[in-house]
Every structure is written in C-alpha cells, then in structure tokens.
Design a protein that fits this description.
Length: 273
Amino acid sequence: MDHTEALTTLNDQFIEAFRQGSWGLLEPVLSPGFAYLDGSTGEVWTHERYVDNLRSHPSPSLSIDQLAIHVDGDTAVVSARTSRQPGTYGRYVDTYQRRGEEWLCVHACVWPLQQSATVCETKRPVSDAKNFAGVSIVPQLSVRRGREAVEFYTAAFGAVEVYRVGGTDNNPEVVAQLSIGSASFWVSDEAPASANFSPESVGGGTVRVLLIVDDPNAALEQAKAAGATEVYPVTEEHDWRLGRVEDPFGHHWEIGKPLIGWPPADASPHGNQ
C-alpha cells in the first residue's frame, strides 16, 4: 500500500468515526499528543472536549469532496471540504506523521466556509451550470526563509497565525495558514522538487496579492516599516485608491480599496482611464 492509499484509508476511518460518533473508531488514527484547533475561533480544544463533542454530535449525513493529500517525507497533509447538510460547508486540514510504517494524525483544524464567497458576490452569475455555494479562493505563497516570512506578514499586515506545520529548529521548513480579518492565505517554504518556487528563485513572481483595507496609506506605511519596499505610492485611479509594495520574499502586494460600489453596475471602468 503506498502512502496516498494508506492516508486515504485513514481519512475514511476518520470521517466514519464522526458519522457514527465513535471514539473507538477514531482513537487508533490519532497520535498520543493529538491536538485539535477550532479554525473559527483559534481555540485549541482539550482532549476531553474533543471526545465529548465527537460522541454527543454524530453526523450520519457527513460527506466530503475536494480531497487532497500531500506527502513530504514523514509528514503528510490531508484536506477536504465537508458538508453536513445541503448548502452548508466546512473545510479541514489534518496533519499526519509517519512513525515506522504507521501514519498517525497529530493535528486537525476545521473551519466553516461562507455560503457565498466574496469572489462570487456579483450581480452576474459566475456560471449557469454549477452551484458555487461555499467556494473560496485562498492563495499559498512560496517563499524562502518561511519562519521569517510568517513574522513579516504578522508585523506588516497584522496577520494572525491560525495553523502551522514545522517551523522549529529541528524542522525549520514551515507551512502556515494566516488570516487578516476574514481573509486567509498560506505561506510555505519553497519546494523545488514539487515545482513550488519562491520569486527569489525564479527572478520574479507571476501573481500579485490585493489587500483591501479601510486606510491604504496607513497599511502601506506599516508594511514599509516592517521591511517591505514601495513599488509605487497610494494614488487614485480607475475608481480605486491603490498602492503597491514588494515584500522581502519577492511577492508583490497591492494595498487599497475601491472608491465606488464594486464591481460597477455596468461592469465598465470609470474615472481616470
């Protein structure tokens, strides 16, 4: 059995345990030091609370889709979208570690997904063929010096770390989820073997991140004070107040806000063109 197959089997057992509310099914999947993080509150649950919640809230209709498994040496991340009833979605990320030939779950994080994602809140249908309820788009930034990057984003943008794998002296490479208000993004050390390169490795990036804030000037100055380089100052153009910085890891951030209701009702640009 390869690692992906083994982890898929463990994930199936994990989900079935929650359908039945069975600690007996779940306990063999978990490491002795297992920790659960409530992604909606940032609270780490006690063992007793986690077991009690499992037993008292069986979910026979629990289903999953969008299953993804990533294995890196003796660490693996398993993620999927969940649904307990039509139109209501969540997402989980479980971290497994291999001990000999056995994989055990050491950390789990679950959070609810908004039924109407910001990226889909337009007056025009995204698609007539699909139901996009619960969809969100979350970027993951590949960087060198991952631990420094997490510290920078915390200082520059007020980000809060809600999840982390690694980032220790014994395991310096990090994968972390950060949140800024209701927005979320991931940061990870580059992994050339998996075709994940930082901008520093390829001489530039192909993606810019747009950070929407109430006070673009103040946010841009805070980023500069934390070590970002100003690409251009905050100005008003195309119905936006917008500036741009490059962070110390090569990623470009546009910082601004729309000056009119967005998107425009007629879906066309206004003002300076």
